[in-house]
Design goal:
Strand order of the largest sheet of chain A: 6-7-8-3-9-10
Structural class of chain B: mainly alpha
Strand content of chain B: under 5%
Oligomer: heterodimer
Shape of chain B: globular
Distance between the termini of chain A: 37 Å
Largest interface: A-B, 32 and 25 residues
Number of helices of chain A: 9
Number of helices of chain B: 13
Number of strands of chain A: 10
Radius of gyration of chain B: 18 Å
Order of helices and strands of chain A: EEEHEEHEHHHEHEHEEHH
Chain lengths: 242, 243
């Protein structure tokens, strides 16, 4: 079964079509990237898939559950790490993780195990008792993704996960994302072409709300007749404009 | 369970901010002490401790508006709310989770004010206990105003609107600092059309044991609290939908 399947997914705001009849599918355990210039419809797509906004037309199925008919069911299998830090700044790292455990109704035993596991996986031991508001950008982003993984989601949405991070913090984050591959289906949005190429199994490029290509990074480069993924992206997006 | 976890987080965020502690608990105490000193030197009926304390306990609740508005506005700004909207938390969990933890803080503020007032010479009577109980509906009104502002404004706007405008409105139009009869006219009419002076007069009546004097003020307080809460819920749900 596909982890995600969209069927004619559409979102209109008055005269603007933000997402135009999107049809795509993402397999279980796949790391799938959504690329596009600003206003391409990536964020609106993620918002619809995570039940933050309702589609104007069409539907999408996450783990077989409809986003229009079974929002609660969808919310039980997804997690979102938004573009901004999205952490409780006055709480410590441990308390942030406990907050998410409590919200998902975990018992004390499971709570302790889950926190220990994610603290280890994300290398948060040294900052576990530090307030989230005092963390560096890299640690804050790690905490944000760890909080998203608390609920053991089947599908994880990562919106611009490495935005604003320095080279080392980004490299550390990529290692963590790679370690999650195949354990959870990941949908990633990013403006960094090298990030999409390095991490993704498949990439979808959107423009003006429409899907213009969906393939592996290697095939996309081949299609655009270039060795550079960034160049391929530019050619494909410009080609769609002309 | 989920709602309580969220409420606990909100209480921690509020109580860990030293500015909140100063303004929420310290500032009303400073005012109580300062005005009592003025009263000792230049006696004014309005600043007698049994008149002053109920007013200060109501005025202090303006900071509860600031607390609730700030935490919601910050959560919206940082996308924490966006993250939480994708969890099984329901709209009721959010509204109760933001409202409930501030009620005990408001009660604690009121208790501290009365302890200070007793030290300053207020007679100990059972009416103090009633006055503390009657502060709860007033605190709901102020918290709802915060929920409403936090759902609409950014955290910076909230500082100006709740921190300055509402604090001043609830001070000037409440009859705490000066007798509204001294101004009279439209000003007095406007004050009595709003809930602040009614909240103060209700608390004064309770503290004096004049339970007939609670009316009609309690209806104004309850009415405004209900309307503010309904609007707050509607605006919160609207911004939730917009996310």
């Amino acid at each position: 079964m596909d982890a995600i399947r969209t069927v004619g997914l559409t979102k209109k705001y008055k005269d603007t079509v933000a997402v135009d009849s999107l049809n795509l599918s993402v397999s279980e355990g796949e790391l799938f990237s959504l690329l596009g210039v600003n206003g391409a419809g990536k964020t609106t797509t993620i918002k619809m898939l995570s039940c933050l906004t309702t589609p104007t037309d069409g539907d999408a199925f996450i783990d077989g559950k409809s986003i229009t008919q079974d929002a609660l069911g969808v919310k039980s299998v997804i997690a979102v790490s938004p573009q901004e830090s999205a952490v409780a700044s006055g709480l410590t790292v441990k308390e942030n993780l406990e907050l998410m455990c409590g919200i998902h109704g975990f018992e004390k035993q499971k709570r302790s195990e889950k926190i220990a596991e994610l603290t280890r996986l994300f290398g948060l031991e040294e900052v576990i008792n530090k307030k989230a508001g005092k963390l560096s950008g890299g640690f804050c982003r790690r905490l944000s993704i760890a909080m998203a993984l608390i609920s053991e989601p089947k599908v994880l949405f990562l919106d611009e996960p490495s935005l604003g991070l320095d080279v080392l913090a980004r490299s550390d984050l990529w290692d963590i994302i790679r370690s999650l591959k195949e354990k959870v289906t990941i949908v990633l949005t990013t403006h960094y072409m090298e990030e999409a190429e390095a991490l993704s199994d498949r990439v979808a490029i959107m423009r003006n709300g429409k899907l213009i290509i969906c393939d592996t990074p290697a095939n996309i480069k081949k299609e655009a007749d270039t060795d550079s993924f960034e160049q391929a992206f530019v050619r494909i997006v410009k080609g769609a404009t002309e | 369970m989920r709602m309580l976890t969220f409420a606990k987080r909100n209480a921690k965020e509020i109580l860990r901010d030293p500015l909140n502690l100063f303004f929420g608990l310290g500032f009303p105490l400073v005012l109580l002490l300062l005005l009592s000193v003025i009263q000792a030197n230049i006696p004014v009926n309005l600043f007698e401790i049994q008149h002053l304390t109920p007013g200060i306990t109501v005025f202090g609740l303006a900071f509860m508006t600031l607390f609730s508005a700030t935490i919601i506005a910050k959560d919206r700004g940082s996308s924490l709310l966006q993250r939480l909207y994708t969890t099984p938390l329901t709209p009721a969990d959010f509204i109760l989770g933001y409202t409930l933890p501030i009620v005990p803080i408001a009660v604690a503020q009121c208790v501290i004010c009365y302890i200070a007032a007793i030290v300053l010479g207020l007679d100990i009577t059972v009416n103090i206990l009633y006055a503390i109980i009657f502060i709860i509906p007033v605190s709901i009104l102020y918290i709802a105003l915060g929920l409403l502002c936090g759902s609409v404004f950014t955290d910076k706007q909230v500082g100006g609107i709740c921190g300055a405008l509402l604090t001043n409105l609830s001070a000037w139009l409440s009859g705490i600092w000066f007798d509204l009869d001294l101004v009279g006219g439209v000003f007095k009419k406007a004050a009595y059309a709003l809930p602040f002076v009614h909240a103060v007069e209700m608390e004064r009546a309770v503290l004096l044991g004049d339970f007939d004097g609670i009316l009609p003020h309690i209806w104004w307080v309850l009415g405004y609290a209900a309307v503010a809460l309904i609007f707050a819920i509607l605006l919160f749900l609207r911004q939730m939908k917009r996310q």
